[in-house]
What we know:
GO molecular function: transmembrane transporter activity
Shape: globular
CATH topology of one domain: ABC transporter involved in vitamin B12 uptake, BtuC
Low-confidence stretches: 1-28
Protein name: Iron ABC transporter permease
Number of helices: 15
CATH architecture of one domain: Orthogonal Bundle
Order of helices and strands: HHHHHHHHHHHHHHH
Number of strands: 0
Keywords: Cell membrane, Membrane, Transmembrane, Transmembrane helix, Transport
Largest sheet: none
Helix content: over 70%
Strand content: under 5%
Family: Belongs to the binding-protein-dependent transport system permease family. FecCD subfamily.
Structural class: mainly alpha
Distance between the termini: 48 Å
Pfam families: FecCD
Amino acid sequence: MTVYLPPIWALSLLTRQAGECNVVENMAKPIPLIIFLAALAVLAMVLALSIGSAQLSFTQTLSALVNPGESLHGNIVWQLRLPRASSAFVVGGLLAASGVLMQVLLRNPLADPYILGVSGGAAVFALLAIMLGAGAFFISAGAFFGAVLSMLLVFALAHGVGGWNTLRLLLTGVVIAAGWGAVISFMLAISINTRVHGMLFWMMGDLSHADIPLWGGAVLVFGLCIALMVGRSLNLLARGDKQAQSLGVNVGRLRILLYFLSSLLSATAVTVAGSIGFIGLLAPHLIRLCGVVDHRFLLLASVLFGGTLLVLADTLARTLIAPEQLPVGVVTALLGVPLYLFILNRGMAGGAER
């Protein structure tokens, strides 16, 4: 009996077509999730525009958006609620995108700008600019400088004999964050009394004075585009340095890019809204639990989900004890701490089972 063996080129073509089918299938899976998250983000924005000291119906909110004019409803939506809600969405997206990049950089799903001290470093230099009476540009520049400096300290101090270690990086980040916290406490203690309240509120996350975040949105779009361009390399880097290098990724250059990009994103978020924790940790992690592993889709989904989470958290912050307002960072911490402990406990339980 003669056994027919297909030629090598046919096997190669079949293998390539199968691989392309798998890629298309894997790319198609997260698309419904992204559509759902986009719809959820729109609903969260409408809810944020409708709820407040003056309750607006869905019809009134849409009418105010379409025909702002000089009406009371138009002023409430366009002057008060839309700037705050849009800032919350942009800041949530910035923190979520920065969290994804840091988690790839450290290969640890529990890394985020807040835990690693990046937010603390940005806050210290932004507060210093506020204490000196500097303008918005110098506050932004100070926040970016502080974020980059914090990342430099973490990576420099964590680089031991065997190079960077994930556990060492995380522990160093926690120590650096504690150090920044001490510096912030000292700055608050010696600052002028009239500025202490505003600085404290800003330290806990404050969106009450937010404007339409044009430059914050521009930074988010820029960072997201750059990250999506290297999305394939992010997927390879997440598997390990050696495997990424063997497949043609310049690991050193990619790490530097991720380092500065995550610093830019987190510094921008801190500049717009102050120090807000857990969004950069929870949004990417919860998206991963939905089965999204491709970092191109993970970035998009995390930005949408992170923005939605912060919009909802800010809506709670300004309505929970109305007419008084809570700092939005307090709400994210109250929600984030138990979720973080649950994720940590779940990971430890999974490790014990294996």
